[in-house]
Amino acid sequence: MEIINDLRLAVLIDADNVPYANIKEMLEEITKYGTPTFKRIYADWTKPTVSGWKTVLLENAITPIQQYSYSSGKNSSDSAMIIDAMDILYSGKVDGFCIVSSDSDFTRLAIRLREAGMKVIGFGEKKTLKPFITACDKFVYLEILKVEEPIKEKSDTHRNNKAADKKSIPPLNKIDADLLRLLKDSITDLADEEGWAHLGTLGSTILKKKPDFDARNYGFTKLLPLIKSMNKFDIDERETGRNKTKNVYLRMKESSNN
Prior knowledge:
Number of strands: 9
Mean pLDDT: 86
Strand content: 15-25%
Low-confidence stretches: 149-167
Number of helices: 8
Helix content: 25-40%
Order of helices and strands: EHEHEHEHEHEHEHHEE
């Protein structure tokens, strides 16, 4: 599903607009795309509202940048992050940026970085406005990174059920007509003469259309289980002859085309 790999990344965090509780999971997510070369976090550290960040900064080797608030009601970290981002861009030391904020004021920054050939991955809460989300190559909701405790069934009937011990992912979105339309249209765009589309290419195409798409938003760890749950697609897993790996192809079922 990931379209970005092995990049040198600058991770810039707006402490005023994201929670610190799941910073560890966020940094683990970032390693799927590359190596964090810069890790900086911006805030007025004299404020008690950001005191919770101080412990996790040491644990995760994140450099705090002090930015005093010169006027009330204005996030002073914005300008400091933007200036640093441009300095890092022109240093030539990174291939992409992770902008961690739920503030849509960083929309123009994301656009500018992409214009310069950088990959931009956004991280923020579900409340993040659409302009910032669509300005990124990929956007990850922080809520899906939370680690849930295993679900324990009290009923004797389910006590031995292995599924009961799996960690659950709380869904942010419902599987609906919009998701089905997105999948249908994307498969149509990629399909060969027989209507088959490669799963990996499909995932990349969907991200180009909808940067915040993620199977975890719907409560699934991967795209294929999500698609299987919808029961709208034929799935063909083809042997590659290499280490028992398979290429997965799918197409719309005839009954679903009506």
